[in-house]
Every structure is written in C-alpha cells, then in structure tokens.
Amino acid sequence: MDCIFCEIKSDVYENDSFIVVKDINPKAEIHFLIIPKKHIESISHLEPEDKDLMGKMMLIAQKVAKDKGIESYNLQINVGRKAGQVIDHIHMHLLSGKKLCH
Ligand code: 5GP
Ligand code: ZN
Prior knowledge:
Layout: H1 4-7, E1 13-14, E2 18-22, E3 28-36, H2 51-68, E4 74-76, E5 92-99
Antiparallel strand pairs: 1-2, 2-3, 3-5, 4-5
The structure holds guanosine-5'-monophosphate and zinc ion (ZN).
Zinc ion binds at residues 3, 5-6, 39, 89.
C-alpha cells in the first residue's frame, strides 16, 4: 500500500497507536497532525471497533496541547475531497495561533 501517513516519522510525539507531526505546510503558527498508526481511510470508513481509537485521538490532542503549553486551539478533521481531505489516512489537525495564508 502506498500511503505516506503509514510511513511518516514522528517529530512531535509518538506512542504505540499514534504519531504526531508538524504539518509540512502549516496553516497556522502551530499546526500539528495527529495520526493513528492504523490505516483507516477517513471518518467515513470508521467501524464500531474504532471507537476507542478515536477517543484516544482526542486525549492525544489534549496531551500534546498541554505538553506544549497551548491553551486555545482548533481541532479539524477533513472528510472527503470536497471538504479538503487530500491524504486518505485519518488524521486530525491541531491548529493554534495566527493563521498563515499561502
Ligand atoms: P488533509 O487536507 O488531508 O486534511 O491534510 C493533509 C495535511 O497533510 C496537509 O495539511 C498537508 O500540508 C500535510 N502533509 C502532506 N504531506 C505531508 C508530509 O509528508 N509530511 C507532513 N508532516 N505533512 C504533510
Ligand atoms: Zn495509511
């Protein structure tokens, strides 16, 4: 399978189920991606068995924000091309600070 998020190396945080990286093309001063190691294409492809993993994803966001001293932030998950999803492996954006325009 050819999936960049199945191969990506962590540069922010990692545990047995998740990788957190800095977005290569940040849209805000702080822009992390929280990526489960399990390959799931999108929220549309979730199965009931994934509910614990998705709960853990929220706790990873909380932990990374706390560890980095980030008080206020947005969490965003894009689902489908028309909503801006370009990588077909579930990931959640953690954004904070001034928005960056490209
Ligand atoms: P999506 O648009 O699918 O929700 O988000 C994909 C995100 O992944 C984009 O914000 C894009 O900048 C980021 N991205 C794409 N390729 C790479 C990569 O190789 N490394 C990192 N760190 N981020 C990437
Ligand atoms: Zn993948």
